[in-house]
Amino acid sequence: MVRPSSRFYGAFIYYLYNFALSLLLISVDKFQSAAMEISKEFGLSIFGFDVIIPESSETSEIYVVDINYFPSFKEVENFPEKLNKFLITRASQNFTS
After folding, report:
1. Which residue range(s) make up the domain with 12?
2. What is the pTM of this model?
3. pLDDT, position 38
């Protein structure tokens, strides 16, 4: 099994985390955990997801409401370069497996 690139997730999670911080203080671990669970359950390596954050959440819970298998990454800095590196790494892992 090929594991997702943590650097790729890092950029995407960073974007989501910064957005969420403007609403509430939420640990990046919650987003990383959700991303890893989605990847595992659906076998996705490149994806985005939408969450809702209840205003009155005392536990800072997030709820995944939408998963996109190839969303827009316009907010991810240097996305074409990151995508290229990810695809090359993934292809080389498939040839060596």
Report:
1. 6-96
2. 0.62
3. 93
